[in-house]
């Protein structure tokens, strides 16, 4: 039970980091297009 919670927590943290990276990439592309 505790292990599955830790796995879920680490997965959510990594997905949040990936989402932040994608948003930053999109912002850079839009900024370059100006």
Question: How would you sum up this structure in a few lines?
Answer:
Keywords: Membrane, Transmembrane, Transmembrane helix. 94% of the residues lie in helices and 0% in strands.
Task: Give an account of the 3D structure.
With 34 residues, the protein is mainly α. The chain has one domain (1-33). The chain has one helix and no strands. It has one helix spanning 2-33. The longest helix has 32 residues, at 2-33. It is rod-shaped and about 50 Å long. The mean pLDDT is 94.
List keywords for this structure.
single chain; 34 residues; 1 helix; transmembrane helix; membrane; transmembrane
**Helix coverage percent of residues?**
over 70%
**Alpha carbon gap, first and last residue:** 50 Å
Tell how many strands the DSSP assignment holds: 0
Strand content: under 5%
Total number of helices: 1
Parts with pLDDT < 50 across at least 5 consecutive residues: none
Biggest pleated-sheet summary = none
CA radius of gyration is 15 Å
Secondary structural class: mainly alpha
Mean pLDDT: 94
Order of helices and strands: H
Compute the number of structural domains. 1
Characterize the overall form: rod-shaped
Keywords: Membrane, Transmembrane, Transmembrane helix
Transmembrane segments: 6-31
